[in-house]
Amino acid sequence: MIQATNSNELFERAKHSIPGGVNSPVRAFRAVGGNPRFMVSAKGAYMFDEDGNRFIEFINSWGPMILGHAAEIVQDAVQAAIPNSLSFGAPTRREIEIAELIVSMVPGIEKVRMVNSGTEATMSAIRVARGYTGRSKIIKFEGCYHGHGDSFLIAAGSGAITLGVPDSPGVTQGVAADTLTAPYNDLEAVKDLLVANKDQVAAIILEPVAGNMGLVLPKQEFLKGLRELCDQENIVLIFDEVMTGFRLAPGGAQQLFNVTPDMTTLGKIIGGGMPVGAYGGKSEIMDFVAPAGPVYQAGTLSGNPIAMAAGMAMLRHLDNHPEVYERLEKTTTKIVNGIKQNMQKLGLNYTINQVGSMFSIFFTEQPVVDFESAKTSDTALFGRYFNAMLQRGVYLAPSQFEALFVSTAITDELVEKFLQANYEALKEAHE
Ligand code: PLP
Known about the structure:
Layout: H1 5-17, E1 39-43, E2 46-49, E3 54-57, H2 72-81, H3 93-105, E4 111-115, H4 118-133, E5 137-141, H5 159-162, H6 173-177, E6 179-182, H7 187-196, E7 201-206, H8 220-233, E8 236-240, H9 252-256, E9 263-267, E10 277-281, H10 283-286, H11 305-320, H12 323-345, E11 351-355, E12 358-362, H13 371-374, H14 379-391, E13 394-395, E14 404-405, H15 412-429
Parallel strand pairs: 3-13, 5-6, 5-7, 7-8, 8-9
Antiparallel strand pairs: 1-2, 2-3, 4-10, 9-10, 11-12, 12-14
Helix pairs in contact: 2-11, 3-11, 7-8, 12-15, 14-15
Pyridoxal-5'-phosphate binds near residues 147, 207, 211 and 240.
């Protein structure tokens, strides 16, 4: 039994001054039982908590630590930038360099605006799409999460599903009425919405690979079909690549699936772990953004020099080392195949979805292709599995409805350790 005395004490203390004791809901471990671990440091594939425990990491700050924690190239870039001041609130050369690099890497981006989180990126993107089209409504998909902007907390994924509040109180009926929802992978449902809301839909926004109801892959005809519908109806197609951007390929899911959206939202990896987001797209649309155009969007800390230094180091590395993606996929496939073998030995037959370095085990025997099928998972069983893994020093996302992220720091030896823990934890969870 690993110790959690210090983490438990800290959690009790945190609850007095922080709502629920955490600064982002899923961190609280509500869905899996027990208390969250308070972290002190992380290096490579490991995180270390306040009780001196070491965990092999499969969250990687929910995605951005693609090269593992405290990667030297990123740390060095940040350290070199610090003496020049932490923020200017004025333009810098590096902002142009990172914008040029993003434009060169992501097929759907001709111009890009930096913001400070994925939430800001998606909120801004739909405002621009509304300004550009002069229409009000948007279509999103059940179980997709696009941050906590009011328009997106309708049938939302991630922590919103985990905590049972997909439709958050505090979102006005007026805002909610402008968000239409359809099941993921269901093109016919989108067509029906478009008929019922002719010439009223400004944007269709989706995770081109959904990572916030667990990992759900798009059917190829789904992405292509959405592209065609948006072209026919003059609707802005927005791919939210906050998770998948620079993770599934240098140009994200849009490169992998060869479907180019009109706008793209980004986050996480472009900050290398610093708080950064971005939205970009066709010049014709992005030129609606102030001061080029009339749609207002701003940020005191946007394009922050330290964040840009970290992001630039990360993106340059990924751009110059495309072999990273092959390696990540190979490691992840080894893990997924190993889990399948473990399940076979134990007479289990749960669904695993994988693409590149992202994967989820769903505790259901049904294929998982949308939110309805994701919800057939046994979440109590997931909780037992999660805690059994934690006891064996493996740190997973504390919810059935999240994807796991593999970093380049996961060696073959760590894959073996993971698989041993996985076998024992699956067994224990069924006892
Ligand atoms: N969009 C997607 C696809 C995400 O996964 C997330 C966060 O996980 C967001 C948007 C929101 O990003 P942030 O948490 O940086 O606001």
